[in-house]
Design a protein that fits this description.
This protein is of the alpha+beta class. It has six helices and ten strands. Strand 6 and strand 7 form a beta hairpin.
Length: 226
C-alpha cells in the first residue's frame, strides 16, 4: 500500500500490535498485511483552560482562565503513554494553576500577573513531556475577581482619592495663610509698602481707591476695592 505523510504529521507503524517505525513526511510503500498505521498531528495546537475557581494565599476565591500552545514532540509516546494525552496536559495545567495561585495573595496576583504564565509553563512542562507533549507557551486570559471584592477595591480607591484631595486642600489653605501672614509682617515692618501698593492699583486702573485722613493729617491708602 502507498502511504503519503504530510509535513505536519507523523505516521506510526505497528505490526501484529507491536511498534515498528515512525514514517516521516513523504511517500512510503508498505505491505498492508498484519500492519496498522496511526497518524499523529505534530503541528502546534491551542489548548483552552476555561475559568478555574482557585484560592489565593489570603483565602480569596478568583477565577483564572488560560491559553496554552502545545505541540506533540514524541508521536509514539503521545499515542501510547495515556489514552488522552491532551486531556492529561489539560489536567496538568489545572493542577499547576492551583498550586501557583495558592502561593500568591490577590494583590500579588493582580500586580505581578506577567510572572504567572512562566511559572505555570515550567510547572506543567515536566508532566506534559511524560506524554510526548511540549508546552511552548502559556498565557493568562482572564483573572475574574468576585463583584464584592471589586466593590471593596473601588471603595478603597475612592477613599484614597478623597483623602489626597483633602490633604491638597489643607496644604493650599496653609500656604495661603502663610502668604497673608508674611504680607502682614512686611506691612507692619515697612508701612510705605501699603502706599506703594495703592499707587500700583491706581496706575493699573480698573479699581476704586479710597483715601482717608489719619490722625496726623496724612492720607492713608485703603486697599483697592475691585
Amino acid at each position: 500500500m502507498r502511504i503519503v505523510v504530510e509535513q505536519w504529521e507523523r505516521v506510526l507503524g505497528y505490526r501484529d500490535g507491536r511498534f515498528v517505525e515512525v514514517l516521516e513526511p513523504g511517500r512510503h510503500r508498505r505491505a498492508r498485511r498484519r500492519q496498522r498505521f496511526v497518524r499523529v498531528a505534530v503541528r502546534p495546537r491551542l489548548l483552552t483552560v476555561p475559568g478555574q475557581e482557585v484560592l489565593t494565599a489570603d483565602g480569596l476565591t478568583v477565577k483564572v482562565s488560560l491559553l496554552a500552545t502545545c505541540r506533540t514532540s514524541d508521536p509514539r509516546r503521545w499515542h501510547e503513554a495515556v489514552e488522552d494525552a491532551d486531556g492529561f496536559v489539560y489536567a496538568a495545567l489545572q493542577v499547576a494553576l492551583r498550586e501557583e495561585v495558592a502561593t500568591r495573595t490577590l494583590d500579588e496576583l493582580l500586580t505581578a500577573r506577567e510572572a504567572l504564565p512562566g511559572a505555570l509553563q515550567a510547572a506543567a512542562a515536566q508532566r506534559a513531556e511524560a506524554v510526548g507533549v511540549t508546552v511552548e507557551d502559556v498565557a493568562v486570559r482572564d483573572v475574574m475577581v468576585p463583584a464584592e471584592l471589586r466593590r471593596a477595591a473601588a471603595g478603597v480607591a475612592t477613599a484614597r482619592a478623597e483623602g489626597l484631595a483633602a490633604l491638597e486642600r489643607a496644604r493650599s489653605e496653609v500656604a495661603a495663610t502663610r502668604a497673608l501672614a508674611n504680607a502682614a509682617r512686611m506691612v507692619a515692618e515697612q508701612p510705605g509698602l501699603l502706599q506703594l501698593r495703592t499707587l500700583q492699583a491706581v496706575e493699573a486702573g480698573g479699581a476704586t481707591v479710597v483715601l482717608t485722613t489719619g490722625p496726623t493729617g496724612t492720607d492713608v491708602g485703603v486697599p483697592p476695592v475691585p
